[in-house]
Amino acid sequence: MRVRGESAGGSSRRPSLGDACRPEMALDSECAARLASPVMETINGCTVITSSQAAEPISFGQAETDGAYRILAGTIPAGQPAPAFHVHPHTDEAFYVASGEITCLLVDREITVPDGGFVFIPRGTPHTAWNSGDAPLLGMIVISPGSADHVFEPA
User: Fold this and answer.
1) Rounded CA gap, 37 and 55, in Å?
2) Which of 87, 107, 118, 124 is deepest in the core (most CB within 10 A)?
3) Which residues are CB-neighbours of 134 under 8 A, at least 6 positions away?
4) Torsion 92-107-83-90 (CA) sign
5) Running DSSP on this structure, what letter comes out for residue 68?
6) What residue spans define the domains of the chain?
7) How far is CA 15 from CA 12, 36, 40, 122, in A?
């Protein structure tokens, strides 16, 4: 994990607090049409996700977990703009980075999380996140509870 000011040899785009929060740009929005994603299959009641180059992220969990949580799984291209600095008033959010790196602005602290890293963001915490690496980020976002509206409110 790197803290603001440290470098990994590449450049990262730091979002402005005034960046527009367009649903198709949001890392955790189900409207992220430019994301590549895995393929999901249910086998004997178990959910299996395999990699693919599909245009939409996989979203599951509400029905499968009776509303306990929701999962978004897929890739985020390098250079994808970050959503505006925001809060989720009704949901917790967690990011798992399988490969690549994600940079998160958590209230007033910026951190870079490499592959294998995990970030938990409690509901109501001002934040934003973006793929700051030179390669696509493969990861998963967990939203809890899955039955609540996962809304973006300006921070």
Assistant:
1) 6
2) 87
3) 10, 78
4) positive
5) S
6) 2-7+20-154
7) 9, 22, 32, 21
**Bond preceding residue 15 cis, omega within 30 of 0:** no
Q: Which two tokens stand for residue 21?
A: 């929060």
CATH of 2-7+20-154, one of 2.60.120.10, 2.60.40.10, 2.30.40.10, 2.40.100.10: 2.60.120.10
Question: Beta strand 109-114 with 2-3: parallel, antiparallel or unpaired?
Answer: antiparallel
Residue 39 structure tokens: 């393929």
Q: Of 89, 40, 35, 91, which Cα lies nearest the Cα of 63?
A: 40
pTM over 0.90: no
